[in-house]
Amino acid sequence: MKIKTIKYIIMGIILFFLIYINKDKIPMPVELKTFDFIISSGIDIDLKSNEFGISYISGEEPGNKNDKSNANKNIFNVKSNTFNKTFEKIQSLTNKSFNDSHLEYILIGENTAKNNLDYFIDYYTKKTNMRLDVYAFITKDMSSENFIKKILFSKIDADARLDGLVNDKTRLSSLTKKNLKDIMQLFYSENKTGLIPVLAVKKSPIETNDKFDKSDESDEKYTFDFDGLGIIKDGKLIDYLPHSLVRSYIIIIKTLKMSDIEITDENNDLFVFSIKNSKNKISCEFDKNNIPEKVIFKIEIETKLDESTAKNDIDINQLNELQSNKIKSEIEELIEISKKTETDFLNIGEILNIKHPYKWHVIKNNWPDIFKNIEYEINVTAKRRK
């Protein structure tokens, strides 16, 4: 018995040695082994045509951190009539166990956000292997598949750029990021209203004179950037908040300690002020029936003069007033969009609930009607920090 055992051990060692030295010659079904290194996924859902599409960006040389371009990246797109069948199709292309636990970013196609965001949320809430800290974006004006195809023309690494938009504290996008957990909380809130960051394709500013570049010169080269916020109402994308208003939106909902204010004075001289700090206080006035009739914004901003085209002495009081008026004008636009879309993305109802819980309890069922008719008073004070 012992001789048999020793014999099997020796045979096992010899077999292992033979496999090891010939491992590169043994055919293995690993067409999509780079799935281990995919961190970005696009989702497109069209229930009318009963089609579900999933797109992944993958690199040919996984783990090569020195490659900061899309040159070695590919797109894998698989479609079927259910999500589960779509994943089965992807799984059939690789011998490795495939799941979404490795993803860091999900790109939601515009039509999916407009029509089937509820299906997207419902599906991913049931996925036990899905990480809730995955960041999500809406791809403006196109499907996520087309978005990925376009951005792979860029000389800038797509995954690295996404990482910068989320983690670079000098970008407004980093203050508006939403992960899957945030979107689920938004979707399952009482009014299902909120904002999701948006990405848009743009023409790439990078041009190449590389004589070895064999690409068709007529092909457009693209990149992408943060392009504002998608307005969600009743769990659907209904409109966009433009990038130009995101700064003032952040000033209202939290403290902003970066960003620039550009103003032009009466002499047409340009001044650029950097925001160093902001404070906000929001209060409400009530009528005799305890119905809120006015919301009062008190905004204080500290800025520093960074750059100027002025050749003469400057009037700092006038410049402070111009800054205040600019921010006030942006807040007025925010309120106009909020009323037009009938979405309380400035969280006025939440503020009422925190500061006046009893009054809120009485009016919360009528809040949508009250919200449409409420007045606003906006006070902005900008001061130059020396």
Structure description:
The chain is an alpha/beta fold and 386 residues long. It has helices at residues 2-21, 83-91, 110-115, 117-125, 144-151, 158-167, 180-187, 246-253, 316-341, 348-355, 357-363, 367-373; strands at residues 40-46, 51-59, 73-80, 105-109, 135-139, 194-203, 222-233, 236-241, 260-264, 270-286, 292-308, 375-384. The radius of gyration is 27 Å and the shape is globular. A hairpin with a 2-residue loop joins strand 7 (222-233) and strand 8 (236-241). It has an 8-stranded mixed beta sheet with strand order 3-2-1-4-5-6-7-8. Helix 10 (348-355) crosses helix 11. Mean pLDDT is 82; it is low at 23-34 and 210-218.
Largest sheet geometry: 8 strands, mixed
Query: Which percent band covers the strand fraction?
Result: 25-35%
Number of helices: 12
Radius of gyration: 27 Å
- Shape call: globular
Helical coverage, percent range: 25-40%
Q: Which keywords apply here?
A:
four-stranded mixed sheet, 12 helices, 12 strands, 2 domains, eight-stranded mixed sheet, globular, alpha/beta, GMP Synthetase, Chain A, domain 3
